[in-house]
Design brief:
The complex is a heterodimer.
Chain A: H1 4-9, H2 12-16, H3 20-42, H4 45-62, H5 72-91, H6 122-125, H7 128-140, H8 143-154, H9 159-166, H10 170-201
Helix pairs in contact in A: 3-4, 3-5, 4-5, 5-9, 7-10, 8-10, 9-10
Chain B: H1 7-13, H2 16-21, H3 26-38, H4 40-59, H5 67-76
Classes of the chains: A mainly alpha, B mainly alpha.
């Protein structure tokens, strides 16, 4: 989560002047959320670590060009997201043949799963298998939707912060968020509706 | 389970994400809530979307960086000498 308090602590001037201790502080401030983002984007610790290391290496290289218009944290997120997307494209270059119209509200997918599974016992949501289903569903999201969902709903960034980190308009962020949530809702509904049927058969 | 959504449902579908966040414009919010009071399917969509987001939020561990990952990162960045001085 980004808070103003932690952001003002990092001095961009010191960073640019080559203050290594200040850079180390930035590393400690930002590395945990960037690593988490990498884990959820790519689904494995090795790739997440690559993204993390490359992000800070790139940051060191391009510190001179950083104008400080956004916070250092937002700037790092931006680098990290590019690194993650690059890695995904390298791993499966066949994707993105056709660009889907994801930024418009027209042609939203009509909800298919219409069972209310919210009434399942809490314990059913906390099983290892359920957690695995949650992670798998995120990885099935198209990358452009996945990254918006991770920043907004998992890291708790605001719509504005997410739009800055991704270089998107707020409208585009909102639409991608809606699409991501609808997609995940379908996936979780399929999964938990089955649990609901099992529960009733007990 | 497959259901033919009515036109009104489709029109309001674009609003439910903001509705769930509590950031929907007041007028649209009233319109949506009126629709929800009459439409069971849309109520389910809203409820399960809320639950979906909630599950992801409670599932997300706000863990710190694993110690070995942090050590390797410091090494890569030639900051090893600062590894023990910072928190």
């Amino acid at each position: 989560m980004m808070t103003d308090e932690t952001q003002t602590e990092i001095s961009v001037e010191a960073l640019k002047a080559g203050d290594r201790a200040e850079f180390a502080r930035l590393v400690d401030l930002a590395s945990a959320p960037i690593y988490r983002l990498g884990l959820k984007m790519l689904g494995n610790p090795q790739d997440a670590e690559d993204v993390l290391q490359n992000t800070f290496l790139k940051a060191l290289q391009s510190l001179g060009n950083f104008e400080g218009r956004s916070s250092p944290l937002t700037w790092l997120y931006r680098i990290a997201i590019n690194e993650a997307l690059m890695l995904i494209r390298r791993q499966k270059p066949q994707v993105e043949i056709a660009e889907e119209p994801q930024d418009e509200e027209s042609n939203l997918p009509t909800p298919v799963q219409l069972t209310d599974w919210c009434c399942l016992p809490e314990s059913d949501f906390l099983t290892t298998e359920s957690k695995r289903a949650l992670d798998a569903a995120i990885l099935k999201l198209p990358e452009k939707l996945r990254v918006v969902f991770l920043l907004r709903d998992i890291e708790g960034m605001s719509i504005q912060e997410t739009s800055e980190a991704l270089g998107l308009t707020e409208t585009a962020v909102k639409t991608r968020l809606l699409r991501a949530r609808l997609n995940l809702r379908e996936q979780l509904s399929s999964y938990f509706t089955e649990r609901l049927i099992e529960e009733r058969e007990k | 389970m497959r259901h033919q959504h009515k036109q009104e449902c489709n029109e309001l579908l674009g609003s439910i994400s903001e509705y769930v966040d509590g950031s929907l414009h007041e007028e649209l919010c009233r319109e949506l809530e009126h629709h929800l009071s009459e439409c069971e399917d849309c109520r389910v969509v809203v409820n399960t979307m809320k639950k979906t987001i909630e599950l992801y939020q409670t599932d997300a561990p706000k863990d710190g960086l694993p110690v070995d990952v942090r050590q390797r990162l410091y090494k890569t960045l030639h900051l090893d000498d600062l590894l023990h001085t910072t928190h």
